Amino acid sequence: MQTTHQTALETKHAVLDRRIAEETHRPLPDAIIVAGLKKQKLRLKEELSGI
Fold first, then answer.
1. Among candidates 48, 51, 50, 35, which has minimal Cα distance to 12?
2. Predicted model pTM
3. Could you read off the pLDDT of 14-39 as tens digits, one per residue?
4. CB under 8 Å to 47, separation ≥6 — which residues?
5. How many CB atoms lie within 10 A of CB 31?
6. Radius of gyration of the chain (CA)
7. DSSP string over the chain
8. How many domains is the chain built from?
């Protein structure tokens, strides 16, 4: 059974995934922004795996 919290985390994870893709496809992607987004995405993934 999926909780509201889990659904919210999955939504945030998907948004971060899209933002990472958008940033990496820019002509001059900002590596610092990409790294920060990836860290956030990893934290969400770890929290999801703990549920």
1. 48
2. 0.84
3. 999 999 999 999 999 999 999 999 99
4. 9
5. 10
6. 12
7. ---HHHHHHHHHHHHHHHHHHHHHTSSS--HHHHHHHHHHHHHHHHHHHH-
8. 1
